[in-house]
Hints:
Shape: globular
Number of domains: 1
Protein name: DUF3107 domain-containing protein
Largest sheet: 3 strands, antiparallel
Order of helices and strands: EEHEEE
Organism: Nocardioides anomalus
InterPro entries: DUF3107
Amino acid sequence: MEIKIGIQQAARELTVDVDDTPEAVEKLVADAIATEGGVIALTDTKGRRIVVPGAKVAYVEIGTGAPGTVGFLR
């Protein structure tokens, strides 16, 4: 599943592919934003750890990545 995180005062969003469910990610984000000093800590599909301070999160988009298309449609 693909997660996009917009970070305040950052020109680009952070895109992470994870194996978690949308509900688990939503709860993690909600807890991090609600808690002072909270962080969003995710592990991507390659085993890398991503940590974002909850206070710096502008938005989070949770969803599946669109599969690439090959060829031409008629």
